[in-house]
Model the fold of this input.
Amino acid sequence: MAVLSRQSVEDATDDFLALPPTDESECALRRLAREWVKAEARAVARDAFMCVARGLPGDPERADELRAVGEELGGREARIAGLVAACTRVQAQADDASPVGTVSMPVLADDAELGDAQTEDIIRAIALFCQRERNSKDTLALLQLLGRPTFDVPALDDARDRMVDEFFIDDLPIIFPYDRIYPEQYAYMCDLKRTLDATGHCVLEMPSGTGKTVSLLSLIVSYQQFFPTKRKLIYCSRTVPEIEKALAELKRLMAYRIECADTEEQRERECTFTGLGLTSRKNLCLHPEVSKEKKGWVVDARCRDLTCTATAEKSRANPGSVPTCSWHDELGTMEQGNLIPQGIWTLADVQAYGQEKGVCPYFAIRRMMPFVDIIIYSFHYLLDPKVAEQVSKELSKDAIVVFDEAHNIDNVCIESLSIDLTRPMLESAARSVTRLGDQIEEIKTTDASKLQEEYQKLVEGLQEASEARDEDAYLANPVLPDDLLTEAVPGNIRKAEHFVAFLKRFVEYLKTRMRVLHVVAETPVSFLQHLKDITYIERRPLRFCAERLQSLVRTLELNRLDELRALQKVASFATLVATYEKGFLLILEPFETDNATVPNPILHFTCLDPSLAIKPIFERFSSVVITSGTISPLDMYPKMLQFSPVVQETYPMTLTRDAFLPLVITRGSDQVAISSRFEVRNDPAVVRNFGSILIEYSKIVPDGIVAFFPSYLYMESIVAAWNDMGILNDVWKNKLIFVETPDANETSIALENYRRACNNGRGAVLLAVARGKVSEGIDFDHQYGRARLYHAAAARLEYLRDAYRIRESEFLGFDAMRNAAQCVGRALRGKTDWGLMVFADKRFARADKRAKLPRWINQYITETASNLSTDMAIVLSKLFMRSISQNANENQTGVSLWTLEDVKKAQEKQRALVAEAEAELARLRAEEAARAAAAAEDEDEDDDEFGDMGFSDSELATMDLSATGASSRV
Done:
């Protein structure tokens, strides 16, 4: 019988009560109630165990309801309900100062039969736990005893000894907050330690759902705590939910380390370890007015208006004359290193702390960054030079940098240095230039000395003019070479009015370039030459444009900086186009979108070289870790990002049975080839066959199915065609259908309802886009992703070929395969999870294409499953689901789960292999030395035979060789 919820029991009871009273209905109602007591007792007992283990109070109301129903039923139900209810009160009865063993706990006899083995085990676990002093290690050990025949103190001690929560890698003690470890996790930690020891960079691919985050944090925190000179960890992830997950994992790890501390000194060191996460002002702001703004850039601008130095000075000179932020002002009264107490703080924790103390969470985290051991934030805080200059410039050079989920790190690098300009932006920039001119004329009459001071600083160089741009940075600027910051600003833009005229001329030139009827592509060199020919604007002043604008805005003390966004983009574009000759391309298009009919020109300044953004990271920090679950082929990333890794490794997934089934469908039931190639993707037969795949899988797969398309435009055309063909109606008979859209709010609503449909058993299909929000940042574990259908295939091609000798076809294959792996890979989020991975494209049948998939996926693609029709794939899928539904008989311990003994065996094997390799190396060296000695002897013999005939140099010198010389001349 399916697990019953309280709501389902109440609904069923109402239905029964509505029927005429009969003996049959009364018996059915009692049977239903007994099943509910059994299911509810198991859930309440499990919650009670975790509460007792963590020292938390249970839920007495839920337990009282369970006991009331049990007593009404009587018999075995009354006994199990009473015992479980007593378990929930164990912590409530306990005095915090007294040992847990003093708590009264009902004893469950070994031969007791409650009708549910899981509940019996949990009750015995609570009773056993109450006999011992509470600690996390016993909690983990008790979890291992659940479901085993022997359940007593000796068994608990044995389980405790076999735990892998503490072990060594070389001389480094590792504390791991779990009782077992995956083989992949151990291998990952070993390679990570090798990278840190070598102070180099690495690329590591670890299968999805195998505990990559906890492995990484456990190793690096142990490394930080073991060595006297702590190296800060900068942990970069892509989305706010992933940042929150990492912080929660770190918080759990540190809580476990504190409990495992053997001495008071160790405990104090663990307690002082500090970790924080950082996200945007929009997510952290507490100001009642500013926090209501929906757009992040508006929040940023209003925040700067309230917190900048000019506002603070005006407020001090004349209190109440200008609005300020009390949360930000409160930070000035506190000691800089103690704005947030020591420990691990999630984003929600910091917000609650800020609300309680009246301080700004965002600036508190920013100012605490030099003092923390771990900072977790988004890629852009380090890779985007416009943001990194403000946030990350003070981070120490010996820090360890980790880019997690880094399969698209090259795209992040490119986006950080790419700019798009439209005609409305240029109109807005022109208005901003006029506003600047008016402000300059006004300040000339009120405080002309400010402009003169600024002029003197610009003569000395940008470095001098930018001394104050810390938190006070008004506008974000692109990265500049160091030598540029020490140069004097060119004379023709030093004076404010000259710079405004310069900007006006440049904006007008860009407007004229927007008048295009067809696509135009050109290099920065060509653009600058044309600019010079038309406007006489030189390259050198353009390079200083962004910094000069920031200096002027600071001098004029402008507010409402959100109105200057367009002008800032133009200035950033000017700086970038004049700074980089190679690695960029300008593209002018008459239409902003493919299906637009009214001209709306757009200028794309596109970065082609991802290494430009990440190069400062590799040069500045000693160890950079690039890791993900789908980052194959590994050798492509060092080529694209231009670095040399000391470790480059991918790990297989160890399973006691196949938990997922990858299938390649190359043709439909009508034997028509399935492909997403542009030439055939809209062919009615291809569209119908892909729809048939969706229909067939919606019939046999329980819960959730996610299908991926190459783009939103293609998905719209496919869905319209399916609607005309009646395919959507056929799918609707089996599951609900939800569609991802470019709008984030619509997608969030669709995801929420998709999960709800999967939870209540109705099942659903989610149509999503590769590289969209669904494919990149959302896990579809367990019932949310039982099958993933991928029907998609990518342009920086010429530049990659010319600069790094990466062929177009090679990059296209790499980009398509990593995209496919990312889409299907997030369906498996643990070794207890299972799912189907369906690649619906004939191109996946090629072995060279599949070789670019991650090793942990590719190892399970068999030849028989790599060239299937729809019918054959459905048959194999049914067989797989039939086998996965059976109970797993294999014991995972020693295979996919390691105990401490298994770790020690692996270490002995590693040492044996190292010794064997060293012996082989010594043998080869000895052979080489022997060959060198033999060669030297042969050379000596040759010298005797054809050279000095055995005479010494002194003997030869005394000989008269004139006769010999004469005879030789004859």
Q: What stands out?
A: DSSP finds 45 helices and 20 strands in the chain.
